[in-house]
Design brief:
three-stranded antiparallel beta sheet; 20% helix; 208 residues; alpha+beta; single chain; eight-stranded antiparallel beta sheet
Length: 208
């Protein structure tokens, strides 16, 4: 039975204004997925590429750091595909676009990883209801914590960042530190690194 239909009319739409629109994806598995947001590819799916080819293939503008903050060490990309994902108890096909991974070495020698991609597109959910439904799905309680969108770890904190609603995870097994999710224009971004919150925010505000 679909749970999406009854929910659309009231609860989900009421939350739409504050939704961060967590991308559609399977439940997070530490050690398998890069982070609790990018759960639709694995680390071994990324192949080395150039900055120009990554930008063209992903169809988004990529961001970089000024030399005062760090240098880009590598660029890689994971290809797009279609897969079936369960959202609020209903299976639907989802178009996953390519994901670009940039690795930066900061001036203090810490590593910052930035993932950028276009939002996955579930084929059976109307565009004007998508953000609310995905947000509700991401934060819905699960009897089995392993089936939760963010896995069995602590829930993220909602916050505003670079002009959009975002989420920050204080610590994940994959990054060993902070993970921040936000979106700009056509692209969604996830940054992860073993740095303080103050340092992470300052570096990311410097992204161009």
């Amino acid at each position: 039975m679909s749970r999406i239909g009854p929910i659309i009319g009231f609860t989900a739409l009421a939350a739409a204004s504050s939704a961060a629109q967590v991308p559609a994806g399977p439940p997070y598995r530490a050690g398998i997925h890069p982070n609790p947001i990018v759960t639709f590819v694995t680390d071994d799916a990324f192949l080395p590429t150039t900055y120009g080819d990554a930008r063209e293939t992903a169809g988004i503008d990529l961001m970089g750091l000024s030399s005062e903050e760090g240098v880009r060490e590598s660029v890689s990309i994971a290809g797009g595909f279609v897969d079936e994902i369960e959202i609020l108890g209903r299976s639907t096909d989802v178009l996953f676009h390519p994901v670009v991974r940039q690795t930066f070495r900061l001036i203090d020698d810490e590593i910052l990883v930035l993932y950028s991609f276009r939002d996955p597109r579930p084929t059976e959910i109307p565009s004007d209801e998508l953000a609310a439904i995905l947000d509700l799905h991401a934060f819905a309680p699960e009897e089995d914590p392993d089936e939760a969108r963010f896995g069995d770890g602590p829930r993220p904190e909602r916050l505003a960042f670079r002009g959009s609603q975002g989420l920050v995870f204080d610590e994940t097994e994959s990054s060993g530190g902070l993970t921040l999710f936000w979106r700009e224009g056509r692209a969604a971004h996830v940054a992860a690194g073993r740095v303080s919150r103050e340092r992470l925010f300052r570096v990311l505000l410097d992204l161009l």
